[in-house]
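Escalated from tier 1: zinc ion holo job.
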Amino acid sequence: MFRLHRDEGRASAAGFVRALWPAGRLALDTLLPMQCLSCGTVVGAEGGLCAKCWPKVTFIQSPQCAACGLPFAHDVGVGARCGACSRELPPYDRARAAFVYDDASRNLVLSFKHADRTDAASVYARWMAQAGAALIEEADVIAPVPLHWTRLLRRRYNQAALLVIALAHRSGTRADPSLLVRTRRTPSQGGLGVTGRRENVRGAIAVRDGRQDGIAGRRVLVVDDVFTTGATAAACTRALLRSGAKAVDLLTLARVVRPIF
Ligand SMILES: [Zn+2]
Ligand SMILES: [Zn+2]
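Tier 2 regenerated the structure:
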């Protein structure tokens, strides 16, 4: 999981930083040479992507749907919503994402989720903080979309929780990485359409017992790696609103713009 242990000096430095601060991995990563998160070329410490890969990733900016954050080709006015959000307003207030999930960016998301590129969290949090500046500023607490414990055991980490810790570290906003919990195992959402995804996660996410007081009347920012149809975001939102949260926003690393099924 921690890919820097090859070097003795760095490994002892890692232990030292971790002893000072539990999320020390994130701090340490900013001190070491970084590889391009897409192709592996060595880039500057402040980088994340090399000069070749950077222009291929489509970062999302205004104009966009005021609700789900879908990027618009043309500015259609402040507060404009996309067709889907006009037909049925999502339960969350605003969803925002750093970049479009497509062929150029897929590897960024997958390597973060499956290939132990946990060192990417601080760079991704920087991009997400730009895309969701207002959401972070207004949030009282930041929480990740939860993994079921069986999936957590297999993967060893929840990539959304790493993003939450990095975002909280940047902003000073309170993080609660275990606020939400999966109450049952759900099959992978891959290959499911809008309705299938909605059914798949219905009632599968809840606020952890005893945490209701911490969110009553508060604005919660839910964080995930990819926004696809918004089904998981809606399930998290409903659970939080039922438990007394005032409002919910969603911030993800990437967002599907065209249906992928
Ligand atoms: Zn590159
Ligand atoms: Zn929308």
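The two ends are 32 Å apart (CA to CA).
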